[in-house]
Write a structure and sequence with these properties.
alpha/beta, Leucine-rich repeat, LRR (right-handed beta-alpha superhelix), six-stranded mixed beta sheet, five-stranded mixed beta sheet, 5 helices, 15 strands, 21% helix, leucine-rich repeat, signal, Leucine-rich repeat-containing N-terminal plant-type domain-containing protein, LRR_dom_sf
Length: 250
């Protein structure tokens, strides 16, 4: 994301190229090669820059233009939240096999992941829901998912996901519902998940999780149904969990 060929940076480069030719008006009709593209003044005028076209921008004093350039370059170099969340989602796409091309629209060249299928965002363009249940995905969950701080619903049930639940999912501080049932996930349940104060619904049943079920925080209200058919899980009888004595995660 944010390559040198992005429209904003391309305009910056083109503007500088034209500034270099400002006092040589006889050359302005010639094309300028920027990032492998042939640019002309007529072509540049088709773009808007601060709500005016390049013919108006070109009439500004050079110091004004340079100040604008520095300001916008600083803004463009700061990664947006949409970019960060898009990177996190794309990390998941790279980590899984997707035989049905469910994630085909997850294009890393698109700055806004809110345009991707199976992704829901709020009015601030922050990702709030990920619907990938029964998508026939296989592979591992990725720690980058923990960066989706406004995610409310993470639906990954009935896939073929393997490996551990990343500890970093404890960063999903807005998470309300986590559905991981009917996968092949292994390893312990990360204690960090019990710190998710907004978590109301959890279904991690029908996996191969192991170790002791957390009982603090949000996990204090979950029943055995949330963890059933994980033969290597164990939990305290006082919570109503069936205790499995198979050596934990060993």
């Amino acid at each position: 994301m944010g390559s040198i060929n992005s429209p904003t940076k391309l305009r910056f480069l083109a503007l500088l190229a034209l500034l270099a030719l400002k006092k040589q008006s006889r050359l302005l009709s010639l094309p300028v090669i920027v990032s492998g593209q042939s640019l002309t003044l007529e072509w540049l005028n088709s773009f808007k820059f601060f709500n005016c076209n390049f013919s108006k921008v070109f009439e500004m004093e050079i110091w004004t233009l340079l100040h604008l350039f520095v300001l916008l370059l600083l803004v463009s170099s700061t990664p947006s939240t949409s970019n960060q969340e898009g990177d996190a989602l794309y990390a998941l796409r790279r980590a899984v096999n997707d035989p049905n091309n469910v994630l085909q629209s997850w294009d890393p060249t698109l700055v806004d992941p809110c345009t991707w299928f199976h992704v829901t965002c709020d009015s601030d363009n922050r990702v709030t829901r990920l619907d990938l249940g029964n998508a026939k995905l296989s592979g591992n969950l990725v720690p980058e998912l923990g960066k989706l701080e406004r995610l409310h619903y993470l639906e990954l049930y009935m896939n073929k996901l393997v490996g551990p639940i990343p500890e970093e999912l404890g960063g999903l501080k807005s998470l309300v519902s986590l559905d991981l049932y009917h996968n092949n996930l292994t390893g312990p349940i990360p204690p960090s998940l019990s710190k998710l104060s907004n978590l109301r619904f959890l279904d991690a049943s029908n996996n191969d999780l192991c170790g002791t079920i957390p009982t603090s925080g949000s996990f204090s209200k979950f029943t055995e149904a949330s963890f059933i058919n994980n033969p290597r899980l164990e939990g305290p009888e006082l919570m109503g969990f069936v205790r499995y004595d198979v050596g934990g995660c060993n």
